[in-house]
Design goal:
This protein is of the alpha+beta class and 84 residues long. It contains 3 helices and 3 strands. 21% of the residues are buried.
């Protein structure tokens, strides 16, 4: 799939905000081409980071199709074991 085609499909898929993985699954493209296209669209102010999914070990961007302001990235929270 050519890069402009991936970008167009991403914009179509972002009817509602979605993570990179959700976008990738929706358009049927690989991880690397999806990430590269999202970064290009972000640089062109065609998508922005609507929010962050903090349910996993690393925060994941939730993308939205528009030129909005990016949500601030949360700091990583390190889990520390409690003293015995």
């Amino acid at each position: 799939m050519a890069s402009p085609e991936i970008a167009a499909r991403i914009l179509e898929a972002l009817v509602t905000p979605a993570t990179t993985e959700q976008v990738r699954c929706a358009i049927g493209a690989g991880t690397k081409p999806t990430c590269e296209a999202l970064q290009r669209l972000h640089a062109r102010h065609q998508v922005h980071i609507h929010a962050w999914d903090t349910s996993g070990a690393q925060p994941r961007a939730i993308w939205a199709a528009s030129a909005g302001v990016d949500a601030p990235k949360p700091q990583r929270v390190w889990q520390q074991s409690s003293p015995a």
